[in-house]
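quick one, 196 residues, struct below
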Amino acid sequence: EQVLILSISLLKCLKRKKATDMFNTLLANYIRDHRMEYEAAISKLEKKPEFSACSSLTTEDRKLLFEQRKEELIERVRQGFRDLVDEFIDDDDIELEDIKPLVESDPRFYALSEDETVLEEEFKRFVQERKVKMIADFKDLLKETRCITHKSWGKVSAADNMLECPHMKEIQQVLEVVCILCVCAVKSMVQSMTMF
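---
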């Protein structure tokens, strides 16, 4: 009797997994707009023959899976917006209005939202995250660069001519190597992007 109960339970789990997988497949194939609401999506999906395989899912299950799909789409659109504005940011004090004329013709700009307030908030969030990442990257660089220490400023400022100070020249050499590595990395990324 316990084997029968386990078998039934296992079959229910497998049926539920199959229904979940089918519903996720339907969502991936037919729901591509993050602005779509649940009711509109379901009415669209109910017309598909594969939808009958999802009948064992509850409404709550479907709503949860739909919301997960919607979040994936929002994140994809958000990343597209961020990639677009990142191409034009050369200064962290820049405002969205400064680059808007350059980017508003790109479909990624308004894909997130038509609302300027939403775009402005996302832009500010992106710039802030970018600043935090740049500071963290710079701190990591300083940790890796043994010639720049807590004594560096004292050595450089004590010299008669800061730019001619041997310690400053050592720092410049290290930073030149880092710049060369960064340029090589960017060239490599650009080449890989142009291949597609």
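The chain has a mean pLDDT of 83.
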